[in-house]
Amino acid sequence: MKMSSFSVISICNYSTIIFSGNILVLLMVAIATDYWEYNGFNFDALLKILPKMNNVNVFIPRDTRTYLEIVYIKDEPVRYYTGNKSSTQYFYQPPVFATVGPIGREKNGVIRVETRIFVFYQYSNLFRDCNDLEDGVRHRLGIKLIQKQKCINFIFMPSDDYRSQYDDAVTVLRIERAAFSFAVFCILCMAVSLTTGFIGASSRRPRLVINASAFSLASGMCLLVAIALFNGKSHLQQRWPLLPHVVFPFKHDLDIHKDHSYGWSFVLAWICVALNFLSSFVWLYKSQYMIDPLEPSRKRSRRRSRKKATAVKNYNYYPHTIEESEALCDL
Question: In CATH terms, is domain 2-290 a member of 1.10.10.10?
Answer without folding.
Answer: no
